[in-house]
Amino acid sequence: MALMRFLMIGFVAAVLVACGDDGSSNPVSNFNVGSMVDERDGQIYKTVKIGDQVWMAENLNYETENSFSQPNRAKYGRYYLWSTAMDSAGMWSMNGKDCGNEIECSPAYPVRGVCPEGWHLPDTTEWKTLFTAVGGSSTAGKMLKSTSGWCNSGSGNGTDDYSFAALPAGEYFGGYYGSECANAYFWSSTEFTSSRAYSIGLSFETGGVYLYNALKYEGYSVRCLKD
User: Fold this and answer.
1) Rg for the chain (alpha carbons), in Å?
2) What is the rounded end-to-end Cα distance, in angstroms, of the chain?
3) pLDDT by residue (tens digit) across 138-194?
4) Rounded to an integer, what distance in angstroms lies between the CA atom of residue 92 and that of residue 105?
5) Whole-prediction pTM
6) pLDDT band at residue 26, thresholds of 50, 70 and 90?
7) Residue 52 domain flag
8) Which residues span the domain enclosing 157?
9) Backbone dihedral region for residue 118 (phi beyond 0: left; psi -120 to 50: alpha; all else: beta)
10) N or C: which end of the chain has fewer CB within 10 A?
11) Does residue 47 belong to any structural domain of this protein?
């Protein structure tokens, strides 16, 4: 029942607020892979440069308060509440301080948030730049999803043409992990209301990507973007 709840609520919300471009832009023809070290805990992450942006090619796995991880699922990284992703406590930067649940805020961009020094939590405009770079939101999901691990592997997996390797980590909500293999959710630093913020969604059921507003106390994955 928990899994079905996540599948229904997460995907329906995404469908209601799909990204607006028509996927007609020309995708970039090259990308460059690399790596970086999070000096806070020594973890090494793959990175990829797509167009003019450099992204983490793995989900953030930095352990801090109000972050969660599934046993035996280290590949998925950790799940963060929006307040944690924004660093509402101001541990590393003041740009997202006091951006929490049931609190409207005006962050100073870019918001480093929970990301390593020199990186930040991308806003919705930066996510849309990525989608445009890989051909548009109607096909970006297929291009960015990993080539294995998704439900209905024959059609659910992606082609991972740019080594972004979006994994179907699902989400954490109310003490439960749900929609593993079905969906990937990534926080943005853009607020919607005092109780909701914008998130990016990918599904095994479609090759597109979706921008929608999610409850701030849900636990989603984080992909950091280089400053």
Assistant:
1) 16
2) 41
3) 999 999 999 999 999 889 999 999 999 999 999 999 999 999 999 999 999 999 999
4) 17
5) 0.90
6) confident
7) no
8) 2-28+58-226
9) left
10) N
11) no
